[in-house]
Amino acid sequence: MYLITKRIAVLALVASVAGCATDDPNRRAKIGAGVGAVAGAVIGHQISHNSGNIIGAAVGALAGGAVGYYMDNQQKEFEAALRQEQEQHQLEIERLKDDTLKLSLDAEVSFDFNEAVIKPAFEPSLNKLADVLLKYDRTVVHVVGHTDSVGPEQYNQQLSQHRASAVVDYLAQRGVPLDRLRSEGRGESEPRASNATEAGRQLNRRVEIYVKPIVEGQESKAYESPDY
Q1: DSSP per-residue string spanning 137-156
Q2: Selection from 104, 109, 108, 126 nearest residue 170 by Cα
């Protein structure tokens, strides 16, 4: 009943704005902004931050046709804010086929060897990343840790999880809501290169951040673990 009431409220807003703005040259823009704000609020309060089920997170959802534009702008702001890190090969930004943004962090730059404490020198980069995430809040952020194959498999799994959790904790301290943050470790199970060489092992030691858009009608997909 609560959900039905909310939907009726959205429809009432549409009718109200449309009826009162007939002679307004900016009528379409105002209607779109008003409906988008209310619809985002309604949908946002119906998503579970644990399961992705539609029951209660404080974020909105994007209409399907708006996703590409929204993620285009977010990607441009990531690239502008983190240009220095990209030029120094400390970070890579990639756009995936479903409009998810993937940011790969070099673990050598962000963590000391076998440690899960973020290096102070890398904190300014995470600050810039957090600022963009705060601006584009209709996304879920998945932080995934990876290691090379040196050492026991269980140890590598734990290290990757601790590193992912450290990044999530830092972003949360910078104001990114925990409702939007997920962390997981995948240890040595997903290498980017051969572990037979030091160059390959260095590529495998990384933290990946997946920024997934929350799409109206498909909200739960944003909360699913990345599988690319």
Answers
A1: -SEEEEEEEE--SSS-HHHH
A2: 126
Tell which residue, 37, 77, 47, 67, has the closest CA to residue 180.
Answer: 47
The partner residues of 141 in beta bridges, in order of sequence, read 181, 211
Tell me which CATH code domain 64-222 carries: 3.30.1330.60
- How many Cβ atoms sit within 10 Å of the Cβ of residue 189? 13
Q: Where are the domains of the chain?
A: 2-44, 64-222
Supply 31's token pair: 């209607």
71-88, pLDDT tens digit by residue?
999 999 999 999 999 999
> Which two three-digit tokens encode residue 199?
């160059």
Total H helices, total E strands in the chain: 9, 5
In terms of pTM, does the model score above 0.90? no
